[in-house]
Structure formats: structure tokens, C-alpha cells
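Q: Predict the assembly, please.
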Amino acid sequence: MNSDLGSLRTAGASQRRGPPAADSEAVITLRNLTKRYSKDVLAVDGLSLEVKQGMIFGLLGPNGAGKTTVLRMILGLVHPTAGEVLLFGERMRPGSPLLGRVGALVDNPLFVPHLSGMDNLKQFWLAGGQPLEQAHFDKALEIADLGSAVNRKVRTYSHGMLQRLALAQVLLNRPDLLLLDEPTSGLDPQEMREIREMVRRLAQQGATIFLSSHILAEVEQVCTHAAVMNRGRLVAIGSVGELVGAANNVYLEVDDVTLAMRVLTGIAGIRYATPEAPGISVQLNGLERKKLVAALVNAGVGVETVASRHRLEDVFIGMLQEDDG
Amino acid sequence: MIRVDLKKQAYRLRTYIALGLMVAVPVIITLAFKLGGGPRDHGQNDFFTVATHSGLNMPLAALSAMSSFLLVVVVALFAGGAVAEESSWGSLRYLLVRPVSRSRLLTAKVLVAALLAFIATALISLSGLVAGTIAFGWHPIATPSLAAMSQGEALSRLALSTVYVAWSMSAVVAFAFMLSTMTDAALGAVAAGVGLGIISQILDAIPALGSVRNWLPTHDWHAWEGLFAHPATTSDMVNGVFLQIPYLAVFLLLAWWWFHRRDILS
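A: Predicted assembly structure:
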């Protein structure tokens, strides 16, 4: 494992400690969860992890890592070959009443095409056997922001509109737990930003969020915790801060890269600095960011941007390369 | 849940086309008889020979003509699409992430398919009755054996025949529904349901198969015509009612078993 990962818990470490024990705070507990679709296809291999209340938990991994299968097993759509799923401390089974506390967006948002957006929401709600009065339509539609289009047939919707309708659907029951599979997939940058902000707001209101994504920046921006999967196995798990080593890596955009590089090579507390157009990637080794910026400014370098950038990508790729061996 | 599913069907153009066909065909048959100058003698007595005798004869002719194929297609359409269409739309996974058991979902789906199958059958009789009465009046009917039967008697037997024909579709409905739980391709499940009806009727027409034919799900499909024989016979109808039960039980049990162990990947 990459030594830069600090206190990051690796899959190996997790196995040595055994599966995490369920307690009252645990919203999702996966114990040795395994799914084998056929003799040759092992989608998920002994996954154990715990998501606690209030976390925004990102499940990261390349396509085919098994993320969607994990989500589907949590929801009871796919039967585990081995292991178990606990939601709110109780064993999850298909169609369990526990699903009344869950909102789920699984894969691409798809609806009954000949019904309007509003009718789809109503039918979805009624299918759960609850009266319409108990659904939070106003709040959900406010977030979906579909306007009068909510009364149009769904077959006329764009992908972004479908995604927003799907999120409205997810929020109808004011869920305690949100399971989102690639929630910004296919959206334009503005829509992506709106969805991410919405996720943060929901977490602030007390919901626990479990999202799968292969977009590293998304996890880095939105999530408090993350797990990395590769080929069905857990590669690493921890807080995003731990994963990223946020304090150690800085990306700088400056007005004079050459001068900045000269300054950086003379400062203690920096492991290395590498030009990375249009700026410089700096690996800190004890130096505080504000002192780094001050040193550059004092040397006459204009600092335009200071950001933690690309680090999760670096870590992620490193983990996968190490895992692939 | 049943209400939800019924509403889904009620909003579909396909539902109206399928049910509209059940209304239109008896009307077309009636018009053909009216404009064509009545039935021609083709050497045998059946419901078509006496179709113009009374308005009450027309639904019997329509039921006899349509229950072997057109009705089969329509009931297979409702049953075969019940689960597979949700699967192909991708909405099945959203139904199953609600706190609703798979059994409850299947129960609602199969009951709606059965209800639509019954409505389709009833529409044949109703449409034939209305069109026939307008065209040929409200008289005592003539049975194929040329016996007369009062309107009240004929109407009650028509109602019983309609229920029987609808029940006779049970095996087709259950088979198409079972396949609907196993595939995302609704058309495949529909075609297989129609195929079961056709193959069973072909096999039933092969005398060499002997008593095996008695066990074919379509063997007693036309047993209701015995109600209009002279004297009326009901023993084949009773056989026909019981014959559907094992098919219904086996196909539905398989549907339940399969759907409960199925991984929802679509």
C-alpha cells in the first residue's frame, strides 16, 4: 500500500480486524458480502464495511468493479451468494419494511414512458402501499425543478430531466438513507453541480448518503468517507481526508511557474514540486499551506489558485495498480 | 397496488387498441352479415349458420370465432407484458425498492392481467349483443341444432359461456405470465403464450394422440357450446374448468419461485 495513505485502512487491515460490528449508529453494515453470478463471474468478493449515520459515503471503483451489484444487494434487488446486509441494524431482505426509510436511485433513471412525470411519482409512491398524502411532493418537486414539464409524458424528457425526476422520486419519503448509483451520470456540468449541492444539503439535514461513482472529483468534493473497490474486492476504506492525504498535496496556479519552482526548491517542508500545466503540483512534508503561499508571495510570485487537486485520482490509480499487481 | 397497476394499463394506448379490437370484430362480423345478406348454407350447423336469427345469436358466433385465436393474442398480451415490460422499462427495480414484497407485486400483476383478460372476453359478448340486437332484433335465439331458446334463457347462458371462455384462458394467461417473470422481452412472453394456445389446438386435432388430447389446455375450450345443444350438456365444461387448474397452479408456482430467486439486473 502506498505509504502516503497514512492512517488509511486497507482491505488487508480490515480483514485482520474482522468485519466491523453493527451498532446503533451503523446505517449500513455489510458483512463478508459476496456475489457470484456464474462460475467465472465473481462480482463482489467478501466485502465488509460500515456506513455510519450522517456520512456521505462514496463507493469508488472503475467500471466493472462491482459497485452497482453492491448497491443492488443492499436494496434486495440482487441476492448475495454469501454474507449479509444490515440496514439500521436489522437484516435486510427483499421488500423489507426497512426500505420505507430508504431512497434509491439505481442505474439509469427509467420510468413508465406513457405516464407523465407527476403520474410516475404518484404511481411509484402508491406502489409502496402508502397514501399520497404521506408523500412529500412539494419538496421533491422543488428540488427536481421540472416546472410544468412534470405534467408532460416522460418519453419527452431529456436525460437531465429524467435524472432530476429520479431524484425527486428518491426524496418522496424523506429518506434516512439515500443510495445513489452514479447520480451525476450523463448530466451537464451545471446539473452535476446542482445534484452535488443537493446531496450536501440532504446530508446536512441528517440523511446518510451512500453513493457509487467512478468520478473521483465527485467523491472528493461531496463525500466524507469513501471505499475503493476493484474487481469485486475492497481495496481501501477511510475518510476522504485520509484517502486523499489532503493536507499533504497542493496544486498551485501561479503567474510565474519558473520563479515559483525556484522558490519551492529552496523551502524546507516540501517533499517535491512538479510543474503540471498550467500550474505546479506540490507534495508537502510538514509545511503549512499558508506558509507555502506566503513564501511564494514574498518572493514576488502571484498565487492565483491553491487547491487540493488530482490527489484522489493519483491515490486511486496507485491503489488499482497495486491491487492489479 | 392493483389500483396502481390498473391505472398504468388504463393510460396505455395499447390497452385500448387490444380491447377496442374485442369490440370491433363482433361489430364487423355483424355488419358483414347485415350487408352480405345473412349466412349461406355451408352444409353444417354452427353459430354462424344461425347468426342472424336474433341479436342474441351474434355474440355466440363472435365468441366461437374469436376465442380460438384473437382472444388468445389479447390475453397473452396482457399477461406476457405484465412483469417483462416493467423490466424492459427499468421501472421494475424501482417497484422493488419500495417496501413491498415480491409476492404482493406478482399478485397485483397477475390479478390485473386476469381482470383485463376477463374484460376482453366480456367485451366480445357485449359488443356482439349490442351490434346483433341493433341489426337483427331481440328475438328468441335459434341454436345450431335449430331449437328455439327464450331471450332470458339465452342471455343467462351467454353470461355463463363468457365466464367459461374467460376461465379457459387461464393456462395461456398463467404461461405467458410465468415467462413474463423470467424475461425482459415482453414480446417473447406474449408470443409463447399465443404459441401455447396454437400448439395445443393443433395437437388436439390429431386423433392419433388419443386420450392425451384430453389433457391439453385447449381441449375443452369450446365446451360452452354444449349449453346451446339440444339437450344441453355441461360435463365437458366441468372437465374444462378443472383442466385449467393444474396448468394455472404449476405455471404460477413456477412464476413465484423464479421471481423470488431472480436477481433484478435490468
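The longest strand of chain B covers residues 141-142. Chain B is about 65% helix and 0% strand.
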